[in-house]
């Protein structure tokens, strides 16, 4: 018995040795076909040479972000969420669609989907380093970067010391960024979005402090705190900021925000400013396909039905969906386009749920729309717009040039369409802004940087809120009982 066991052990050992010998001397397997590299996490380069979606309250909903990615947005910013709000939410995952919801007591505070994670920047509204870190840790598993809102001028943000109020408290601003950078793992980027200060010298001092906190990128909204969307963005001031950051020896992207109409117009903006990338807000709110070189026209036919189907499939809130749809507009290419657009809008306005717009949606096949978006995101050749890449010589020329072209108010009023804007930009009018845009307040206006005092009648009297960055959808104000 012992002899048999010994023989068996010797046989087993012999087989093992032969197998190891064959493995050592065997030829390497044939090389696999090279696959497209996936973006595991964002890097400093991820913020360069791109056109990105701005963080927009309400308008930057999940369906809008997905359509922006489908049509070529390099990165997408989620709408600002206040730190305390997300801390009191509960995370849930839809087992069918994969939608991740952070739910409050009565509704979802914020939703996302894994398909957008490689390109998603989550924006925090905060005035407390500890709360900001807690909020970032709450969502970090579902995002690729954290952005601090330092530019929102709306009272709900500034009265708590958040948003644009941080511009006048650089110590707090930088302490939040420093805390975020120290708390987040290296694969999670930390960035900031600011506005210009009235003084360029003060702006540069603030930028220097922000860059030294270790941020991966800095977005500059080229308006001051007291300026609104109707005021022309002062993009000519950004060139000096870009040059200043470069002079610091930091390989940090500076992203321009303000008055860009689309991917083609982004060329003009980058040429004027030397910015590494361009962020789009209002144009994307009107048409998420503006990131494409051939943006959609007749959106009531080419975008609205698909947006409805996708929103229902992802269980997007109806009121939020309705609001986003109300912002869409585009040129009409058909003789009955304007009338049909009006009909679609009126139908949506009167609707109380998705069931009321099935005729516009053309059936609830949102899963197919979602699959189409997934295919577009996964198969696009690169996350950056190659057509925006400027040669080193062109960048240097844009940065070093001291002659800033400008146009008069009369010239601005002549810009009556997107087409004329592009034509005029290519012909040398580099600062032309959208129709209806007015000149910014003059430097000598004495407008205080920190004041939250309304310049018009109170909203309760006028029925309008001029400080709200996004439309209120025409909801009537409640008349107080006197």
TrEMBL record:
Q: For bias kind Low complexity, which ranges apply?
A: 466-482
GO BP of this protein: mRNA processing
Domain DUS-like FMN-binding, by residue range, is 53-293
Please give the Pfam families that the UniProt record associates with this protein: Dus
Residue ranges, annotated region (Disordered):
463-482
Q: What's the superkingdom here? A: Eukaryota
User: What keywords are annotated for this sequence in UniProt?
Assistant: Flavoprotein, FMN, mRNA processing, Oxidoreductase, tRNA processing
Assigned GO CC terms: cytoplasm
The Gene Ontology terms for molecular function here are:
flavin adenine dinucleotide binding; tRNA dihydrouridine synthase activity
Q: Kindly state which reaction or reactions the protein catalyses.
A: a 5,6-dihydrouridine in mRNA + NAD(+) = a uridine in mRNA + NADH + H(+); a 5,6-dihydrouridine in mRNA + NADP(+) = a uridine in mRNA + NADPH + H(+)
**The protein's required cofactors:** FMN
Q: Under which name does UniProt file this protein? A: DUS-like FMN-binding domain-containing protein
Native organism: Lentinula aciculospora
């Amino acid at each position: 018995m012992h002899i048999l066991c010994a023989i068996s052990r010797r046989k087993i050992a012999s087989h093992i040795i032969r197998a190891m010998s064959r493995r050592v001397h065997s030829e390497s397997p044939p090389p696999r076909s090279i696959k497209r590299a996936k973006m595991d996490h964002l890097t400093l380069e991820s913020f360069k040479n791109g056109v990105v979606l701005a963080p927009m309250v309400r308008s930057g909903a999940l369906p809008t972000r997905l359509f922006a990615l489908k049509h070529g947005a390099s990165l997408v910013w989620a709408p600002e969420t206040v730190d305390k709000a997300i801390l009191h939410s509960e995370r849930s995952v839809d087992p069918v669609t994969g939608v991740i919801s952070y739910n409050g007591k009565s509704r979802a505070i914020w939703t996302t989907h894994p398909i957008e994670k490689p390109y998603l920047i989550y924006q925090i509204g905060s005035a407390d380093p500890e709360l900001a870190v807690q909020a970032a840790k709450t969502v970090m598993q579902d995002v690729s970067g954290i952005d601090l809102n330092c530019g929102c001028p709306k009272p709900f943000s500034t009265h708590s010391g958040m948003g644009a109020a941080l511009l006048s408290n650089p110590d707090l601003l930088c302490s939040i960024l420093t805390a975020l950078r120290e708390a987040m793992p290296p694969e999670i980027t930390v960035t900031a979005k600011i506005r210009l200060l009235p003084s360029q010298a003060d702006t540069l001092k603030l930028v220097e402090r922000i860059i030294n906190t270790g941020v991966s990128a800095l977005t500059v909204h080229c308006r001051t705190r007291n300026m609104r969307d109707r005021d022309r963005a002062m993009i000519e001031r950004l060139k000096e900021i870009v040059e200043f950051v470069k002079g610091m020896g930091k390989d940090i992207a500076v992203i321009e925000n303000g008055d860009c109409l689309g991917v083609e117009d982004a060329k003009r903006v980058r040429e004027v400013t030397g910015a590494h990338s361009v962020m789009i807000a209002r144009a994307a709110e009107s048409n998420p396909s503006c990131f494409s070189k051939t943006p959609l026209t007749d959106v009531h036919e080419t975008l609205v039905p698909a947006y409805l189907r996708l929103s229902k499939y992802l269980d997007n809130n109806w009121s939020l969906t309705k609001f986003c749809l109300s912002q869409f507009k585009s040129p009409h290419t058909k003789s009955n386009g304007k009338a049909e657009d009006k009909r679609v809008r009126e139908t949506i306005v009167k609707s109380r749920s998705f069931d009321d717009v099935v005729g516009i949606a053309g059936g609830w096949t949102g899963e197919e729309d979602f699959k189409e978006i997934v295919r577009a995101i996964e198969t696009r050749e690169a996350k950056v717009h190659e057509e925006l890449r400027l040669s080193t010589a062109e960048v240097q020329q844009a940065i070093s040039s001291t002659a800033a072209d400008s146009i008069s108010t009369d010239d601005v009023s002549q810009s009556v369409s997107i087409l004329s804007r592009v034509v005029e930009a290519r012909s040398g009018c580099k600062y032309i802004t959208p129709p209806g845009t007015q000149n910014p307040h003059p430097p000598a206006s004495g407008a205080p940087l920190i004041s939250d005092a309304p310049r018009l009648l109170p909203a309760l009297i006028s029925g309008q809120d001029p400080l709200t960055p996004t439309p209120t959808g025409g909801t009537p104000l409640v008349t107080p009982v006197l």
